[in-house]
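Archive maintenance. Older records in this collection stored only the sequence; we are now back-filling the structure field for every entry so that each record is complete. The fields below show one back-filled record exactly as it appears after the update. Entries are processed alphabetically, and tRNA (adenine(58)-N(1))-methyltransferase non-catalytic subunit TRM6 is next in the queue.

ARCHIVE ENTRY
Title: tRNA (adenine(58)-N(1))-methyltransferase non-catalytic subunit TRM6
Organism field: Hesseltinella vesiculosa
Length field: 453
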Amino acid sequence: MADSSQHSPAIKKDMDDDFPHVVKNQYVLIHMPSGNTKMINLHPDTKISLGKFGTFQSNNLIDQPYGLSYEIYDKDGHIRPVKNFSLEAVEETAANNQNITDAANIQALSHEQVEKLKTESHSGKLDSQQLIEHLMNSHSAFDKKTEYSKHKYIQRKKKKFLKVFTPVRPTLYSITDYFYSKNPDKINFLRVDTLSQLLSKANVRAHSKLLIVDDTQGLIVAAAAERMGGHGTIVAVHDGDNNNYDILRYLNFTKDVANTIHTLPLARINPDDPDEQWVDKSDEELKTMSQDNLRLFERKKKALLARNTSRKLLFEGNFDGLLVSSPYTTESIIQKFAPYLSGSRPIVAYSYAKESLLSAADYMRQSADFIESNVTESFLRRYQVLPGRTHPEMTMSASGGYLLSGIKVIDCEFDPNLVVRDESSRRTKKRKNDSPAQSDSNADTPTTSTPTS
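Back-filled structure field:
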């Protein structure tokens, strides 16, 4: 039997495979007490640094469940699960902060003493909770604070000194929220509520065949692939020779999901251009190549064949939806790719600026190929939910961008011979409209015969 001391968390490793747990060589989001989030690729036998919150061994986190909070409790980087600290109910009292002065001498501990406590906490000699208790006991005006002020003070110290982190599984929601708060330019300011409306308006579902023009670092492509779950086909058109869909790797997609995505450069969408031809090398040339050059040779061959496959899928048409987020004019993108859609299929375009969608909306309304073209704006308000203190957050995003949606239809001439008339219903209507006099004249009346001599 293996020694349990080699793995610090007191959790069985033979957990159910269906239960989400941290997997090596995959990306994971780390939520820290300060409220910041860090993206890491968890390689085995490495040290993960969380800045002032400490460093832990990656092997101690592998195969452990997501969502639990872990504490770094010594200088060797061992971790152990802790209870998820939540906010407790705070009772209102008659105390107030009127007589509290924010002076330097309000804290009895000197700067050197506080730094010494922090050093002992980082080395594992002092627990983080004990450090916070030292600060509370040495605060001369702590007892004079209101219960709300005491609670806020403790929470601020926890965010500053607790060496607790929570691993979170990368999902579409967590990844979108991470990039929107950290680097919104990378995803073209696409907020999570706008992304959900985009997927809903485009009717993204399993076994769909979607055409996507994406400049959000692959966020829209990743969202469609996650919703389709490996069933269907996605042709993603990008600018440049190579795609920049970095977000795809952060979601740790399986091969079944990744194989549904086919990328194609904008320069290769002209059907008049011939397919690229690959020239193989002889066996003697392959033997003289180094391992690095041989891998590069095989990679180029695979990329070329993949581009030809994507072109074939594009020119086959019969797509179930067109999703657009492009630096080029939306009108030109719709004009170029709308012919590849089947009839009664949605078109949804996203842009952070409304003006770029207005001309496309006007074009769709004047064309006989589209109906129900509308430009909408999403609105999101976040709330701080605390016991007895629920209110909207003081700062929030002003806009989540705009969506242009419409339906591609097939224009066909009206043929009256194809209209089916229900003759029985017409006869029923005629009988209802008949007058009583007509009904009496048509009724059968008895006749009398006159005898003849």
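Update note: Residues 33 and 315 are 51 Å apart (CA to CA). The radius of gyration is 34 Å.
Entry marked complete.
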